[in-house]
Automatic annotation (TrEMBL):
L-tyrosine binds at Y34, Y169, Q173. The keyword Cytoplasm applies. One of its GO terms (molecular function) is RNA binding. Residues 357-419 form the RNA-binding S4 domain. The gene is tyrS. It comes from the Bacteria. Homodimer. Belongs to the class-I aminoacyl-tRNA synthetase family. TyrS type 1 subfamily. It catalyses: tRNA(Tyr) + L-tyrosine + ATP = L-tyrosyl-tRNA(Tyr) + AMP + diphosphate + H(+). Pfam families: SYY_C-terminal, tRNA-synt_1b. This is Tyrosine--tRNA ligase. GO terms for cellular component: cytosol. It comes from Gracilibacillus thailandensis. Its EC number is 6.1.1.1.
Length: 423
């Protein structure tokens, strides 16, 4: 299937600058394309996944992707899709963020695939050496104020205030496209739908520069992916704990797996099309499973498996599934300390110095029960579980058998209230 046909079938194309021209261009060339990622944090989050995976789809179709890290533009801040100005980070911080993002991109894209290997570039290399006068003479003169004001990313911010720093961002990104076109024969830029104005501005800059140099018109294109929305009206990629990061230190593989497995029934097939490489026959089968047995959540599990394996690898997926199964069954004795850390990252925790503490004293000291009297009632009523196993012994003293790798004990009170005890 032609790459554009596949993208259309997956509902992944919001706009193209010239659909017929791009189709022919892709048919006749190994096309170099790029997408930019500004280092605004020390990790990408799942909001970045769609454009990263678009690069991967083009690579699988035989084309050459460039992952452009905005070490230069990240010092400025893109106003697109924002109602307020970004806070500016120091050059040292942005450099550190850039290096971490490069590592994450390398784990998803194939940087060792011969003729169409993906490459990472950092626009700090060419933007940092520009002088202000150079920039105004060589780039700024090709942008009329009226042209820039008409762009959605600028127009939507004018009433609330837009600094000259942000206003100049479009020119910087346009210069990126020009630079990659001239040095790497990059002829296609992709991005989110909020990048349409920046992409078309870059194409216009290339056209003007070539006209200025009496060169024939360039064959360059732009393509955007849709803004991801959730059927329940909440923002995609956000949880009660904040953003869902690709860095396992910020969002554990278990949390990452749970995010996907908890996808709304109304969104799950759409997200499978968007984010996975599952073929259309299997997608149709999963859609049928959803219709006939929604309670089994088979598509949700498949989505969670594919995404966790893609971002964190096979072993992390197995670990996430193991933690999920243990929590579902209530038997926590099969989990090791690292899995306990993941699965109970957000539950209340307390450190206890006395490893041989009595159960009643533990319940009070950890604020699981409000008093010794309440603790006795909880134990006698069968409301207390140690590592998933009910314990009704009022005289029970915790021993090594109650500690997982001599580090943790999980106390459950009632059906859902978990507490992590650290020793």
């Amino acid at each position: 299937m032609h790459i554009l046909d596949e993208l259309e079938k997956r509902d992944l194309i919001q706009q193209t600058t010239d659909d017929d021209g791009l189709r022919k261009h892709l048919d006749n060339n190994i096309v170099t394309l790029y997408c930019g990622f500004d280092p605004t944090a020390d990790s990408l989050h799942i909001g970045h996944l769609l454009p990263v995976l678009m690069l991967k789809r083009f690579q699988k179709a035989g084309h050459r992707p460039i992952a452009l890290i905005g070490g230069g533009t990240g010092l400025i801040g893109d106003p697109s899709g924002r109602s307020t100005e970004r806070s500016l980070n120091s050059p040292e911080v942005v450099k550190g963020f850039s290096e971490k993002i490069k590592e994450q991109l390398a784990s998803i894209l194939n940087f060792d695939q011969g003729e169409n290997s993906a490459v990472a570039r950092n626009n700090h290399e060419w933007l940092a050496s520009l002088t202000f006068i150079e920039f105004l003479r060589d780039i700024g003169k090709h942008f009329s104020i009226n042209y820039m004001l008409a762009k959605d990313s600028v127009e939507s911010r004018l009433e609330g205030g837009l600094s000259f720093t942000e206003f100049s961002y479009m020119m910087l990104q346009s210069f990126d496209f020009l630079n990659l076109y001239e040095k790497e024969n990059c002829t296609l830029q992709i991005g989110g739908s909020d990048q349409w104005g920046n992409i078309t501005a870059g194409m216009e800059l290339i056209r003007r520069k070539r006209f200025e140099n009496n060169e024939e018109e360039a064959e360059v294109y732009g393509l955007t992916v849709p803004l991801i929305t959730k059927s329940d009206g909440t923002k995609f990629g956000k949880t009660a704990g904040g953003a869902v990061w690709l860095d396992p230190e910020k969002t554990t593989p278990y949390e990452f797996y749970q995010f996907w497995i908890n996808t709304d029934d109304r969104d799950v097939i759409r997200f499978i099309k968007y984010f996975t490489f599952i073929d259309f026959d299997e997608i149709a089968a999963l859609e049928k499973e959803l219709e006939e047995a929604p309670e089994q959540r088979i598509p949700h599990k498949r989505l969670a498996e594919e995404m966790t394996k893609l971002v964190h690898g096979e072993e992390a997926l197995k670990q996430a599934q193991k933690i999920t199964a243990a929590l579902f069954s209530g038997d926590l004795t099969s989990l090791n300390a690292a899995e306990i850390e993941q699965g109970f990252k957000d539950v209340p925790s307390v450190t206890i110095e006395n490893k041989e503490i009595g159960l009643i004293d533990l319940l009070v000291e950890a604020n699981i029960s409000s008093s010794k009297r309440q603790a006795r009632e909880d134990i006698q009523n069968g409301a207390i579980y140690i590592n998933g196993i009910r314990n009704q012994e009022l005289t029970h003293q915790l021993t090594e058998e109650d500690r997982i790798e001599d580090k943790f004990t999980i106390i459950r009170r009632g059906k859902k209230k978990y507490f992590l005890i650290r020793f």
